Amino acid sequence: MNVWFSKFANPNRFLKVSSVIEPWATRFTFALFGVGLCFSLFISPPDYQQGETVRIMYVHVPSAWMALFCYTVMAICSGSYLIWKHPLASIIGKETAPIGACFTFLALATGSLWGQPMWGTWWVWDARLTSMLVLLFLYLGYIALQEAFDDRVRGSRAAAVIALVGFLNVPIIKFSVDWWNTLHQPASVFKMDGPSIHSSMLTPLFLMALAFKAYYIWLLLVRVRSELVAGKVTRWKQRKVAD
Amino acid sequence: MGKFLEILKRDLRLAFHQGTDSLIVVAFFTLTIALFPLGIGPDQEILKESSPAIIWVAALLASILSLNRMFETDYEDGSLELLCVQPITLEVAVIAKILGHWLTTALPLIVISPILGFFLNIPWEGYLGLLASLTLGTPCLSLIGSVGAALVLGARRGTPLLALLILPLYIPVLIFGVSAVDALIQGNSPQPHFFIIGGILLGGLALAPLATAAALRQAVE
Questions:
Q1: Contact: B154, A166; criterion CB under 8 Å
Q2: H/E stretch holding B211
């Protein structure tokens, strides 16, 4: 079966495309972080209730979005790897996992730092926090399973299956604040009747979210490229030994 | 259907002959539960309140411990490959394996749980709830666990890896299993919790055999 994105499954074509995208991703990352940090640290007003601690949100919310986004990318890649057997899909999934795990950890850590002054506790076992913790373990399980086999293909396939199984958790995280009465506040940006945050705070939030996304693309391309190069080096070494 | 029963009978016969496996799981379950009163202290009130959670957590851990038995021996002696070429859909064969695993490892836990509840001073109203929630919940554990058991075949450090993969996925069953018992003890209706566990069971029955069979196919490839 051939689909339109099959042509990008060729590693060499991917490298060509990525060499065009990568410098732009780098530039966007620095520019967006520069502007976004200016907005979130200086220009945006402190909250009337939370004071200056509201600025943690500009890191916390984008990393939480990225945590879910990365897992979704991983699940899509795993699905297309299992269906069409594109090795590149497996590499993208594999290289996304540690980045996603770091974003998840960052979301948990910044949330905890914010929770101490606001809620009076570092951690509560509410639905959103618990399901994010589960997400972190799903990432770690995926990475561990990938590394657990001597045969790399076996590891990639097993990890792809567990990524798809664990994807059930993503909608649970997204809607946990709506389904359960939690201490974590419900969604306030993506709502049917528009965001309930003032534009002076929404602007830095979106700038930071875009900066995080650009940073992810930059990092992913670097990681995929080095993985492809590492594969080439291994094959070259094996050929040398064989000769 | 005949093949389904044959696979089930084979597993039961094997478990019966090697009897110790079920016994070890029961012993582990009992011992884990016995650790809690020793750790928490013999305060009857605290034990009474936390007993459903203690029994459920012990059941989860015992399930993880028993999971590597589900396909491991078949994988090692090659009968898994034969299972894959049987004139029966692998997904159906997987359900037979899961049922066999549940009958030999989870059922003994359910049978012994009222005695352990007795030791933990669980309130009278909780007994039926505990039995019902375990009866409904442990098949979910076997179903979800089968995916992990199939995935780690041939992996280094199988059992710890299995725990890392599967324990996070067990959490919903734990939450609603304990909530059902707690609701009964507090005199509320346990129905919504049982409905959700039932939903997980049906969803697992539909999806887990597919994932497990896919994992088994690539394990024997």
A1: no
A2: helix B191-220
Is residue B160's pLDDT more than 70?
Answer: yes
pTM listed for this prediction = 0.87
C-beta atoms of A134 and B218 within 8 A: no
Distance from C-alpha of B66 to C-alpha of B123, rounded to nearest angstrom:
29
pLDDT of res. B208: 92
Question: Domain extents for chain A?
Answer: 55-181+197-242
3-class SS string, chain A: CCCHHHHHHCHHHHHHHHHHHHHHHHHHHHHHHHHHHHHHHHHCCCECCCEHHHHHHHHHHHHHHHHHHHHHHHHHHHHHHHHHCCHHHHHHHHHHHHHHHHHHHHHHHHHHHHHHHHHCCCCCCCHHHHHHHHHHHHHHHHHHHHHCCCCHHHHHHHHHHHHHHHCCHHHHHHHHHHHCCCCCCCCCCCCCCCCCCCHHHHHHHHHHHHHHHHHHHHHHHHHHHHHHHHHHHHHHHHHHHHC
**Residue type (1 letter), A37:** L
CA angle B111, B115, B119 (to 5 degrees): 150
Q: What is the pLDDT of residue A4?
A: 63
Chain A environment of B155 (Cβ under 8 Å): 145, 148-149, 158
Nearby residues of B190 by Cβ (< 8 Å), 6 or more positions away: B129, B132, B133, B179, B180, B181, B183, B184
A51-64 confidence digits (pLDDT tens): 778 888 889 999 99
Question: pLDDT digits over B62-88, tens only?
Answer: 999 888 888 888 888 888 888 888 888
Token pair for residue A202?
Answer: 């929404």
The domain spans of chain B are 2-220
A141/B218 CB distance under 8 A: no
ipTM of the shown complex: 0.84
